[in-house]
Amino acid sequence: MNAEAVQAAHRFDVERAGIDAAGSRVVLVLAAVSILFLIVGSVFGVIASFKLHMPDWLADYAVTTFGRARTIHLNFVAYGWLSVAGISIVLWILPRIFHTPLRHPIMAYIGGVLWAVGVACGGVAIGAGWSDGLEWLEIPWQIDLVLALGGLLMAWSAVSTALHRNVHHIYVSGWYFLAGLVWFPMLFFIANLPGLHLGVQQATMNWWFAHNVLGLWLTPLGVGTAYYLIPKIIGKPVFSYSVSLLGFWGLALFYSQVGIHHLIGGPVPTWVVTLSVVHSVMMFIPVIAVAINQHVTVAQNIWAFKQSMALRFVWIGALMYTAASFQGSLEALRSVNSVTHFTHYTVGHAHLGAYAFVSVVLFGAFYYMMPHLTGKRWPWPRLISLHFWLTVTGFAIYFLALTVGGFFQGIELLDPDVAFSDITRHIVPYLEGRSLGGTMMTLGHIIFGMHFFALLLAKRSGSAGTV
């Protein structure tokens, strides 16, 4: 499909056609729920961060011990914020690119409620000490059944909308969204089968799932959203549509085995780890393809970046996808992994992908989407700028502290002459930097949430406008 045809497709007036109306309520409810999970999850994240250098703080309460607070943070942010916010945006964008109203919005609404209840119950269970005890799979499998049903209903609505589309061509955002809706249920089902995975096999499955949640679920949400919003805000098509498909198929072919590099040095077959390292390096191909398309498009229209706060969030997030992917591919190399493994460096890398990439893109999407959904302007535009700088500055402090501190931590762990107690003391200043950055990010989330709900309660203005 040539650039002119893509641009012509973008000229379809979705608002005049009333495309948003059918799914507006479910999208708004999902967005609101996701922001509540973001704020609560961020608070638990700050608690967990402070306890790394202030272990006696809140030590009398089981729910605020590091193991439970950190786990609640992970699950609320991954499944409550990123997943729910991502699905809300999918249910908003898919009808627009398929030129048809959302199908079965009531089904999606019920699914969203079930998913939110499942995540909330999972957090309560973890706080009470009931957990499956696996990274990214802590929510008990009995509660996962509720999540599975909720996810099925929401996916059904999205897929049904795709099947009833009024366009023959599927824009690249649709490729990413629909693929994620296929990949994630398979990952979730296989990983949560009780009693199936034991011992080394369980560890292998665990990291296969954990890494693929980021690469085959959250990444399609983030990249697909950026692919829709960047040309939409600028008003021009992406640099090369053919290159965008190379990025999609490269992700589909190479990402699925990437996670096993977390088991380098473990009791797993060497060929499995080597396969993961090769796949990690091959991920340069789809990442470069996405980078060419998205970054060149914005760089050629830098005026839009200066004028649109939504585009600032989206493009910064897209840049962080490139950075996180490049860092991850290099981190998978055995020579690098021997230093960074089991250190805080990997925590910084995980947040570069899940937060600086996916979350920041979702922030931009909300800032663009909400005026179109509600017909209202954001009440206090300066708060958007404040949120942006708290996010960028806070994350920069967070990431640099963990990356630099984690690297030195890894070097010292390889030195047999350095006592472990000394390593623990040396890392404290970097952990304090992590807490400072995390607190700034959380403050930004609270401001974002207050602004969001103020918009919902505000009176309708004459023209929604954009930011």
From TrEMBL:
GO terms for biological process: electron transport coupled proton transport; oxidative phosphorylation; respiratory electron transport chain. GO terms for cellular component: membrane. InterPro entries: Cyt_c_oxase-like_su1_sf (IPR036927), Cyt_C_Oxase_1 (IPR000883). It comes from the Bacteria. The chain crosses the membrane at residues 26-52, 72-94, 106-130, 142-163, 175-196, 208-230, 242-264, 270-292, 313-330, 350-368, 388-408, 439-458. It comes from Advenella kashmirensis (strain DSM 17095 / LMG 22695 / WT001) (Tetrathiobacter kashmirensis). This is Cytochrome-c oxidase. Keywords: Membrane, Transmembrane, Transmembrane helix. One of its GO terms (molecular function) is heme binding. SUPFAM superfamilies: Cytochrome c oxidase subunit I-like (SSF81442).
